[in-house]
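User: Show me a protein chain along with its predicted structure.
Assistant: Here is one chain, sequence first, then structure tokens.
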Amino acid sequence: MDHKEKKYLDYLKANCPGIPLQDVTFNFLDGTHSDIVIATGSTAFRFSKYDWAVCYLTNAVRAVRLAKKYVELPLPDIIPLEPGVVKYGFIPGKPLSRNKLLLSKSLEQDYLAKQLGTFLVQLHSVPLEEAKNARLESRFADRDRSYWKSRYHELERKLFPYCDNYTRESIQQLFRVPFEKKNFFDYPPCLVHADLVPRHILCKEKSLRINGITGFGSCGIGDPALDTGALLANFGESFVSRVCEYDESIPEQIGRARFYAALRPIIQAENLADKISTRDFSDYRIELMEPGIFPVGKH
């Protein structure tokens, strides 16, 4: 047993005496800002990895409490124990993988699209006043045209030394249309999940039915296209067109959503460039960006 495992077990023994600890599973890889400890398969705990990351767990507690009033899909019951430590009911399931989705039957894809489209409509319809009263921040409010111009120059400075001419031109092209269209980054603000990636969309083990949505640490007031862009990046245009049948706001978002989706591998590259410059790879993780082709085995 390593140092972290012992530390977390000692904490649970001291602070959660009613929780059986005979069969404990540790997950130090899947949480971006926190370590996960699962006890007896039904109760889970998250421990913040860093002092500066405590705010993500605090934010998740606030977001889930509010979203549960409006969202039909199951969300985790999160109980704060102290700053940087939360307890929640474990939601069983496997992440919704792109391969499994695209290898499934059309009717199964439609049902998933309905579940996700309904979730987006319900979450994005949470009254803004309630979100503000719940102290969910407008963390994306400053991402206007001037913000993205500044970000572009930052990406240019960090990445271009490692890029060939084709990659430089591709990054420049990505930003060209958003900068030419004056109102490209205008949007109706709403409550957004902001991290709707496969590991936060949990499906039943033997069927493509969503068991629950997790990962609300980054939830805040912002552009609904952030959530659509996450679906585009991970599941592709054909599936998002199915989701569009249940969320009629997607066509208005699609230009920004494509921008956010295309930006994802660039941000990953930026994170790697930062680590090269600081020589700190302690929290580095390789994230698979699946290609926009059908899975091997698709007929």
